[in-house]
Each structure stands twice: as C-alpha cells, then as structure tokens.
Amino acid sequence: MAFQILVNIIIAVTWMFLQNSYTATSFLFGYIIGIIILFILRRFLVFNFYMNRVWAIIKLIMLFIIELIKANLDVIKIVLSPKLNNQPGIVAVETRLETNVEITLLAALISLTPGTVSMDFSSDGKTIYIHSIDVPDKEDMIEQIRNSFERAIMEVTK
Amino acid sequence: MNVNEISEFIAAVLMLAGSIMAVISAVGIIRFPDVYTRSHAGTKSSTLAVLLTLLGAFLYFAIAEAFVSVRLLLGILFVFLTAPVAGHLIIRAAYRAHVEMADITIEDELKEVISQKEEEKDQSHLR
C-alpha cells in the first residue's frame, strides 16, 4: 500500500514538472490522474488497488460517526428516564482480529458504541471483556454491532 | 438572512447542542449507581459534547473571521483518540481494585478470570 502511494505521488510530481506549474492545485490534479493510472494498471500490482482500502477507511469512519450518535441517544434515553431499570453486566466477546493495532481500534470503537465500554483483555488477546449497560435485550445486538465493526476493521487491514 | 448569518446560526446550534450534551453527561454521572455505569455517561456523552462545541467554534471562526483554525480540528482528533482509552483504563483499574458493582448488575463473566489470575500469583509468591 505504501509503495502504491509513493508511485502515485511520483506521478503527481511528474505531472507538475510537465505542467511547469508548482502549485497545490496542479499537484492535486496530477494525484487524481495518478489514481486513474493506478486503477488502469491494477492487474500488474502485487497488492490490491489501494483506493479500495481508503474507501474501507472512509466507510469505517462513517459507521463510527453513526454509531457515536446512536450511542449518545441511547445514553440520553437511559439518563433522562424517570426510573433506572437497566441491568448492567460484564460480557466476554471473542474476537478474530490478530494484531495489536486492530484489537486496540476495536476496543476504542466498542467504547463509543451504544451501551458498551471495553473493560479488559484476556492475556492471549483473543477475548475482550465488555461492560454493557443493559444485558438482557442487548446481547444479540452487541454481537451484531461487533460483527459489523470487526468486518469493517478486517476490510481495512486485510 | 444571508449565507453568513445562516452558517453562524448553524455554528451556534452546534455549540448549544454540545453544552446540552455536557449537562446530560453530568446528570448521568450523578444518577448512575456505580463506577462502571458512570463511565458510560463519562466517555460517550462528554466526547460528543466536546466534539460539537469545538466544531461549532471552528465553523464560527472560519465563517465570521475567515480564520481556519487547525488547532481546533487537532483538538477534536486528540479527544477522540484519548477519551475511550481513559475510560477503559479507569474502569479496568476500578475492577482490579475490587470496586463493588451495583445491585442491579446481573452478569459478571470477568470474575472467574481475575480470581484465577490472583490465585496463580499468590501461589508463585509462596514458592
């Protein structure tokens, strides 16, 4: 991925030399042309076309913003309800992610999703312990959210 | 109303929403029964509160004074990076220090793991 970005920047700089105008606009234009050239030549590259991964990162950020807003609506609903009748608890969740960066990212995202805060990791890093604000009806939903986050992170780092 | 006033109005609404979120987060910290549930209100709501307030300030300065402040954007980024980690560390430390959970808690899958770990540590001390 880093190699492809480097190639793209070199194409953009070459474009600037050909235009003989050294401005941010012509760099941006050359960069876009570089993206198109890399897209055409994607079969000859060792890795996948790197814009796919950029797109996955953008999707992850969008998912994250939506989940953050949902989480806050959830907290508002619980805080402002006249009676506190939620049932908190700690749930263990297995994860398929491997590297430390991925697991840290997943834990941070879990902390900002509706009704869950990551509490602890098991020593082998395969299980995340999550404090959930409402256990009975949330457990399936947590699994579902976790799957969507986990899949989004795997798409970014595959 | 021209474009400038409308965008200043949007900035004001963002800041107002941010301060309301901060108040709700404070109410949550008072109302919830134990450390663990309080951290829910503490991490999520105050993160969004800071985000909305800083975004409103950024928009206001960008439109009214034509001054793009990158520091505000960096502030948003740093709060986003650090707030979940801080919440995680605080409740992790609380759990390891055997802080009681609220009575309404119905499930605890971490208890066995921690007690097992502590037993192992005790045995290695004895040896």
TrEMBL record, chain A:
Listed transmembrane segments: 22-41
Keywords of the record: Antiport, Cell membrane, Membrane, Transmembrane, Transmembrane helix, Transport
One MF annotation (Gene Ontology) recorded for this entry: monoatomic cation transmembrane transporter activity
Broad class of the protein's primary localization: membrane
A cellular component annotation (GO) from this entry: plasma membrane
Bilayer topology term: Multi-pass membrane protein
InterPro entries: Cation_antiport_E
Record has Oxidoreductase as a keyword: no
Record localization: Cell membrane
Keyword Cell membrane part of the UniProt annotation: yes
PANTHER family associated with the record: NA(+)/H(+) ANTIPORTER SUBUNIT E1, NA(+)_H(+) ANTIPORTER SUBUNIT E1
UniProt record similarity statement: Belongs to the CPA3 antiporters (TC 2.A.63) subunit E family.
Record protein name field: Na+/H+ antiporter subunit E
Biological classification of the source: Bacteria, Bacillati, Bacillota, Bacilli, Bacillales
From TrEMBL, chain B:
InterPro entries reported in the protein's UniProt record: PhaG_MnhG_YufB (IPR005133)
Principal location listed in the UniProt entry: membrane
GO cellular component, one term: membrane
A Pfam family matched in the record: PhaG_MnhG_YufB
Subcellular location: Membrane
TM segment ranges: 6-33, 45-64, 70-91
Keyword set includes Transmembrane helix: yes
Topology with respect to the bilayer: Multi-pass membrane protein
Highest taxon of the lineage: Bacteria
Single Gene Ontology MF annotation: sodium:proton antiporter activity
Keywords: Antiport, Membrane, Transmembrane, Transmembrane helix, Transport
Recorded family membership: Belongs to the CPA3 antiporters (TC 2.A.63) subunit G family.
Protein name per Swiss-Prot or TrEMBL: Na+/H+ antiporter subunit G
Organism of origin: Oceanobacillus profundus
